[in-house]
Request: fold
Amino acid sequence: MKKLYIVKENQDFTRIIKAQKFHKNQSFIIYEQNNNLPYDRFGISVSKKLGNAVYRNKYKRKIRSIIDNYKKSYNNMKDYIIIFRKGGENKTFFELEQDFNSLMLQYHLKNKSNHNTKTPQKERKIK
Reply:
């Protein structure tokens, strides 16, 4: 992930978190706020309560990898703060990827519905 796409400043973290627009699941809490840039920016946080620096950086690398794989799918011109939760510790990379994508899909669909577009409906099985 390029430095251009990273939220690093403490004041940016607090501004985005105070906006209180978030989604959460067992592995992540994702806060979001609009920015005036033509790209998304991501900030990643892993609590010291979860482990030492080596452990925290391991999970930050995993989250960065997930973001790099899917960031083109979610170009909303927003800032995101991703907080890793204790519930994601024992999950595989694939499970973390699914959890992250489900939360980002909620944002993506919510954004499209705000712009008067229909959200996709589940296919029904015909017997």
Observations:
- The helical segments are 10-18, 53-70, 93-114.
- The mean pLDDT is 81.
- Residues 42 and 80 are 5 Å apart (CA to CA).
- The longest strand covers residues 28-34.
